[in-house]
Design a protein that fits this description.
The chain has 198 residues and is of the alpha/beta class. Helix content is 23%, strand content 25%. It has 5 helices and 8 strands, in the order E-H-E-H-H-E-E-H-E-H-E-E-E. A hairpin with a 5-residue loop joins strand 7 (172-179) and strand 8 (185-191).
């Protein structure tokens, strides 16, 4: 199975609080909700298609809690709630032991080994949505096959960035790109080893 990270990011790389401010999830961050004013029907459909495509989801603990509360309650909405509720979910956590959201498996301990086991299963796709910290960790551990970034034409100026200031370098190969009328750009890259330098 290939592992894809799909995240909404700002032009300056912020992947935090795209849907709105949440003091419990993002204490002190007041610039949330940067994605909603720019979304249009085509961009939302593109993101929904991405959520409907995988065989299973991989989520970080915080994102899982947020999604369970919000999307889990909308499991028959013919949209995002149904897309994620109807598929297996693997949540990376050392604190969650008995998940209540149907179809959830907890990954703890040797996370890299467990992700490799999932990837070794035949065919299909594992999709990471939200979960910027988990996305960074998966990249650093070279477990990512594809990056799907939905970049919004806004500079937030603060917040949690997807890519760290220092870290591994990766060569990327553009697989697909789409530009939406509001200026959102969807970019899909295959992650392929180290880049070449002049």
């Amino acid at each position: 199975m290939k592992l894809t990270i799909s995240l909404q990011v700002t032009l300056d790389g912020v992947a935090q609080a795209n849907g709105g401010n949440n003091e419990e999830m993002d204490p002190g961050f007041t610039r949330g909700g940067w994605a909603l004013p720019l979304n249009d029907g085509d961009a939302v459909q593109y993101i929904l298609d991405t959520w409907q495509r995988p065989d299973a989801f991989v989520l970080g603990r915080k994102t899982y809690g947020l999604f369970e509360t919000y999307w889990g309650a909308r499991s028959d909405d013919s949209g995002f709630g149904e897309a994620i509720s109807s598929k297996p979910k693997h949540v990376v956590s050392n604190t969650l032991t008995e998940p209540s959201w149907e179809g959830t498996t907890v990954i703890s301990g040797d996370v890299a080994a467990r992700i490799r086991e999932l990837k070794a299963q035949p065919g299909g796709e594992l999709l990471v949505v939200g979960s910027a910290a988990l996305a960074r960790w998966l990249l650093e551990n070279e477990l990512v096959d594809e990056l799907n970034l939905i970049q919004f034409p806004v500079i937030v100026g603060e917040g949690e960035r997807l890519f760290p200031r220092d870290g591994l370098d990766f060569g990327l190969e553009l697989q697909h790109s789409t530009v939406f009328r509001t200026g959102i750009v969807a970019l899909t890259y295959r992650v392929g080893g180290r880049p070449e330098y002049a």
